[in-house]
Design goal:
Elements (H helix, E strand, L loop, with lengths): L2 H22 L8 H13 L5 H15 L9 H7 L9 H14 L1
Helix pairs in contact: 1-2, 2-3
Length: about 100
C-alpha cells in the first residue's frame, strides 16, 4: 500500500468511526459534550476542517474526557495522526507499528 492508498484507508477509518459515533450519540441533545464531540468528528471526516490538527485535538478530547469510547477509536488512526495521539498507544504497540512500517518499505 503506497502513501496515498494508506491516507485514503485512514480517512475511511475516520469516516466509519465518525458515522458510528454520530449514530451512538444521536439521542443526546445538541449541547451535550459527547454529542458535540461526535459532530466535530463528523465535520473532520467530511473534510470540513484540517484533518491532522483538528483530528489530534478531537482524539485527545475523546481519550481524556470520554475514555469509555476510546476503545472504539481505530488504533491505526492514532499512528496515522501521530503527535500527541501516540501518547495513547503503549510502547509495544508503537514498536509493532514501526516494525510493520519498516517491513513495508
Amino acid at each position: 500500500m503506497d502513501d496515498v492508498e494508506y491516507a485514503e484507508y485512514c480517512r475511511s477509518l475516520l469516516e466509519n468511526f465518525a458515522r458510528e459515533f454520530l449514530e451512538r450519540t444521536r439521542e443526546l441533545g445538541p449541547q451535550d459534550g459527547l454529542r458535540e464531540l461526535a459532530l466535530a468528528f463528523g465535520e473532520v471526516s467530511a473534510g470540513g476542517v484540517d484533518y491532522y490538527d483538528r483530528g489530534r485535538e478531537l482524539v485527545s478530547r475523546l481519550f481524556t474526557s470520554y475514555p469509555e469510547f476510546a476503545p472504539t477509536f481505530p488504533r491505526e488512526l492514532l499512528w496515522f495522526l501521530g503527535g500527541e495521539c501516540l501518547h495513547y498507544m503503549p510502547d509495544e504497540e508503537i514498536a509493532e507499528f514501526e516494525r510493520r512500517r519498516e517491513d513495508s518499505a
